[in-house]
Amino acid sequence: MRLSNTTFIVPLRIETDDRLRNVIVSSIYLLDNTDCQIIIKESDKTSVFAEKALPQIRECVGDKADRLTHVFEENQEEYFHRTRLLNDMVMMTTTDVVVNYDCDILLPLESYVTSEEKITSGDCDVVYPYGDGDWQFQIFATDELVSEFINGDYDLSILRKSSRVYDAKYGFCQFFSTKKYIEGGLENENFIAYGYEDDERYFRFHKLGYNVCRLDAHVYHMEHARTNNSWFTNPFIQNNKNLHDTLMEFDKAQLQEYYKNQDYLKTRKNN
Q1: Which letter does DSSP use for residue 196 in this model?
Q2: What is the pLDDT of residues 190-207, one digit of tens each?
Q3: Is 148:156 a contact under the CB 8 Å cutoff?
Q4: Whether the model pTM is above 0.85
Q5: Residues paired with 220 in a beta bridge
Q6: What is the pLDDT of residue 52?
Q7: What are phi and psi of 194, to 5 degrees?
Q8: What are the residues whose beta carbons fall under 8 Å from the beta carbon of 214, sequence distance 6 or more?
Q9: Phi, psi dihedrals of residue 19, rounded to the nearest 5°
Q10: Contacts of 96 (CB under 8 A, 6+ apart)
């Protein structure tokens, strides 16, 4: 069973039409090609996913959509607390492997399988399923292109027809041992909206002594319009930067002490 021991967790707020299309495409791709579980936690004023995305996903993959759990949280705030939503979903996860997953991401199928195997075998605690450097294909998707992709047996070369090669570093998605993710501090909920949390996570798990691995493989990012919740214009960016800069100076013992005293972690571990 391909990826039967893996749960993809997707924090979601659908603010643009391309974001809507992306979450439909990535969900269909995962459900139709693997046996994974997906948890999507949507935080918004109303549920765009339930109204516009889920019916299309179910129409395409049928009963396979039963492996997708959608949780809606009504939220009137303008900012999107991505790190908190991710932690909520980690604590819901029952598989040994959990994937912090952007809804705009696709990987070659072998990358998913290899990443799961590296964690379940104990070889790695964290896997970045793409290389460091020019390993990103930015996909400039249209409705026509993604329809061709889905109807074309999910051939990624179809998407590459409308792409450019770009840098890949720390974001997109990461595979974790669920146990080690929690043990290592989960997502730092003091990072809000967008910015610097991806960098801090990578260096933290390295510094704490976890085995962090990478694949020499491409990541496909379906481009989307940027809002304050997905760019450096958000009002939390300076606070995020200051926190990042502080934590990057910590040694292993200081990091362990810092995370041991985080209320969000204490609360979750005690529940």
Answers
A1: S
A2: 998 777 999 999 999 999
A3: no
A4: yes
A5: 106, 137
A6: 97
A7: -135, 140
A8: 127, 128, 129, 130, 131, 132
A9: -65, -40
A10: 5, 119, 120, 177, 178, 179
Over the chain, what is the mean pLDDT? Answer: 94
3-state secondary structure of 174: strand
CATH of domain 6-270: 3.90.550.10
Domain boundaries, the chain: 6-270
pLDDT at 77 over 90: no
- Is the dihedral angle over the CA atoms 44, 47, 50, 53 positive or is it negative? negative
| Residue 1 in this model has a pLDDT that exceeds 80 | no
- 72 bridge partner residues: 42
- Model pLDDT for residues 132-162, shown as the tens digit of each residue: 999 999 999 999 999 999 999 999 999 999 9
Beta strand residue intervals within 75-224, DSSP E = 97-101, 105-106, 126-128, 133-139, 163-168, 173-177, 212-214, 219-222
Biggest CA–CA distance in the chain, Å, is 52
Sheet holding 97-101, edge to edge: 68-74, 37-44, 6-12, 97-101, 173-177, 126-128, 212-214
The pLDDT of residue 193 is 79
Q: Which of 33, 36, 196, 13 is nearest to 104 (CA)?
A: 13
